[in-house]
Automatic annotation (TrEMBL):
This is Adenosine 3'-phospho 5'-phosphosulfate transporter 1. It comes from Macrostomum lignano. InterPro entries: SCL35B1-4/HUT1. It holds the Pfam family UAA. It comes from the Eukaryota. One of its GO terms (cellular component) is endoplasmic reticulum membrane. Its main location: membrane.
Length: 485
C-alpha cells in the first residue's frame, strides 16, 4: 500500500475497523452461498465480455469446455477469498497486533485470520535460555544408544515396511479409482465435475485433521521419539503459528493442481499423467528459486534434465498420448477429423498437465516456506489447507449450481458413491502416512517410496485398463526412474 493509504487506514477508529471487517466477512459469506445468477454483475465487472467470448470460442474449437469452467472456478474462489484478503491487509496496516483488543469473539477471529500466532507475543529469548540447549551425549550414552539402535533394527525394518505398504496401498488404490471415476461411465452416465472430487477429498481431510489437532497434546508424550527434538526446536526457536490466511495461497494452488490432474485424464492416459508427475522436479526447482530463493547444484539440474528427457521419450513413443479412454476421437468417422481431434486432445492434455505441474510446484514450495518461517506441524498444515480448500471449492460449486447435481449423480449411482468415499478415504489416510513417514524416516526415504509407487501405478494401470505401451515408451519409463534414483 502507498503511504497516503496507510495514513488513512491508521487514522481509522477501532469501531470503524471492526465495521469494515464485519462487512468483509458478510460479503465472503454471501458470495459463498449465493447462486451464480445473483452474481451476474460480478463476472462482467471482473472479466471483459470479449475475453469470455474468446474463451468460449476456444472451448468450441477444442471441443472442450474446461477453459470456461476453469475461469468460472477462479471467479468463485475470488468472490469468497478476496474479502478475507481485504481483512488481512486492513488489520495489518492498521496495526491490530498493537492497537486492537485481545479478547472477544471478533478480535479473536481477526487475530487468527491475519496475525502470526493469533497476535500473541513471540516467545522470549530468556525462555529459550531457561529451557537450555540440548547437550551432547557422553561416550557411554552414545554406546548405549548404539546398542539400542542395533536391538531395534528389526522393529525399524518392520516400521519402514509398514509405511511402504501403507503408502502403496493408499495411493495405488487412489490412482485406480481416480482413473475409473473420470474416464469411464456409470450406467451410461459420466461424471465430469472434477471440483466436487477435490471438495470431498479436502472435506474428509479437514474432518479428520481437526480432532487430531485436539488429541495431539494428549498423545504427544507417547508418540514423540524421533520427532521430539524437532517439536522442541519449533517451540523454542521464537517462531509463531502462521496467520490462517497464509494457508489460502497453497490451498488455492492445490485445488487448481488437483482440478487440472482430474481434467487431464479426459485427454491423456493415466500412464502419461504419472510420467508427467515424475518430471515435476524442474517446476519445483523453478518455484523453489522464485518463492524461497533456493539454489541448486549442477548434478541436480542434470537429474532434472534426465527425468525430463525420459518423459519426452515416453510421450513421443506412446500411441495413447493423445487418445485417452474418454477421448471423443473414437466417435469420429473422418480420418482427417480424427487426426485433428487427437491433436486438439493433445493440446488440452498438455496444457492441463502443465497447469498441474505449475500449481503443484507452487503448493509444495509455499508449504515448505511456511514450515521454515512459522511454527506449523503437518497436522496443522492439513487442517488449515483442507478448511481453506473446502471454503473455496464449495463457494464455486454453489455459485455454479454444480454441488446439487454432483450429489444427485452420487445418489443415482451407488457404485460411484462408494468409489467417491473410498477415494477420499485413500487420499486422507495417504496424507497421514506421508506425514508419519517423513517424520520417522526423512524426506529422502519418502521420495524413494513414492517414486517406486509411480512405477507400480503405470504397470497396474496398463494391466487393469489395457493401456498399450511400446518398447520405447518403457525405455522412457526406465530413464525417468533411473534419474529419480
Amino acid at each position: 500500500m502507498k503511504k497516503p493509504t496507510k495514513s488513512i487506514i491508521a487514522s481509522l477508529s477501532l469501531g470503524q475497523v471492526h465495521t469494515l471487517v464485519i462487512l468483509a466477512f458478510a460479503a465472503s459469506a454471501i458470495a459463498a452461498v449465493a447462486p451464480w445468477r445473483w452474481l451476474n454483475p460480478l463476472p462482467t465487472w471482473l472479466i471483459d465480455t470479449a475475453l469470455l467470448a474468446e474463451l468460449s470460442a476456444l472451448a468450441a474449437e477444442l471441443k472442450a469446455d474446461w477453459p470456461v469452467r476453469f475461469l468460472a472456478n477462479l471467479i468463485g474462489y475470488a468472490s469468497s477469498l478476496l474479502p478475507l484478503y481485504f481483512v488481512l491487509r486492513l488489520v495489518q496496516a492498521w496495526g491490530y497486533d498493537r492497537r486492537g483488543p485481545s479478547r472477544g469473539i471478533l478480535p479473536s477471529c481477526i487475530r487468527t485470520l491475519a496475525l502470526p500466532g493469533g497476535g500473541a507475543a513471540s516467545p522470549k529469548d530468556d525462555e529459550n535460555d531457561r529451557l537450555g540447549a540440548p547437550r551432547k551425549p557422553s561416550k557411554e550414552q552414545q554406546q548405549k544408544q548404539k546398542q539400542q539402535h542395533q536391538s531395534y533394527s528389526l522393529r525399524w525394518c518392520l516400521h519402514l515396511t509398514a509405511c511402504f505398504l501403507g503408502l502403496q496401498a493408499a495411493y495405488l488404490t487412489w490412482g485406480l479409482l481416480q482413473e475409473r471415476m473420470t474416464t469411464f461411465d456409470y450406467n451410461g452416465e459420466r461424471f465430469r465435475d472434477s471440483q466436487f472430487l477435490v471438495f470431498v477429498n479436502r472435506a474428509l481431510g479437514g474432518l479428520l485433521a481437526l480432532p487430531l489437532m485436539l488429541l495431539a497434546p494428549l498423545t504427544s508424550g507417547a508418540t514423540r521419539k524421533s520427532s521430539q527434538t524437532k517439536a522442541s526446536d519449533r517451540m523454542t526457536d521464537g517462531k509463531q503459528s502462521p496467520p490462517a490466511f497464509e494457508y489460502v495461497y497453497s490451498s488455492v494452488s492445490n485445488i487448481l493442481s488437483s482440478w487440472c490432474q482430474y481434467e487431464a485424464l479426459v485427454y491423456v492416459t493415466f500412464p502419461t499423467q504419472v510420467l508427467a508427475k515424475a518430471s515435476k522436479i524442474i517446476p519445483v526447482m523453478l518455484m523453489g528459486r522464485l518463492v524461497s530463493r533456493k539454489s541448486y547444484r549442477v548434478d541436480e539440474y542434470f537429474t532434472a534434465g534426465l527425468i525430463s528427457g525420459g518423459t519426452a521419450l515416453f510421450l513421443l513413443s506412446s500411441p495413447e498420448v493423445a487418445e485417452a479412454p474418454s477421448s471423443p476421437t473414437s466417435t469420429a468417422t473422418n480420418p482427417t477429423s480424427a487426426t485433428q481431434q487427437q491433436w486438439m486432445n493433445a493440446v488440452s492434455g498438455a496444457t492441463l498437465l502443465a497447469g498441474y505441474l505449475m500449481f503443484d510446484a507452487f503448493t509444495s514450495s509455499w508449504q515448505s516456506k511456511l514450515f521454515a518461517s512459522y511454527r506449523s506441524g503437518p497436522i496443522q498444515m492439513l487442517a488449515g489447507s483442507s478448511l481453506a480448500s473446502c471454503l473455496a471449492t464449495v463457494t464455486a460449486q454453489l455459485q455454479q449450481g454444480s454441488l446439487v447435481s454432483a450429489l444427485g449423480f452420487a445418489y443415482r449411482q451407488p457404485l460411484f458413491a462408494s468409489h467417491l468415499g473410498l477415494l477420499a478415504l485413500c487420499s486422507t489416510l495417504g496424507q497421514l502416512v506421508i506425514f508419519h513417514t517423513i517424520d520417522s524416516f526423512g524426506p529422502v526415504t519418502f521420495t524413494i517410496i513414492m517414486t517406486v509407487r509411480q512405477g507400480f501405478a503405470i504397470l497396474i494401470s496398463s494391466v487393469v485398463y489395457q493401456h498399450r505401451l511400446s518398447g520405447n515408451a518403457w525405455c522412457g519409463v526406465g530413464v525417468v526412474f533411473a534419474g529419480c534414483f
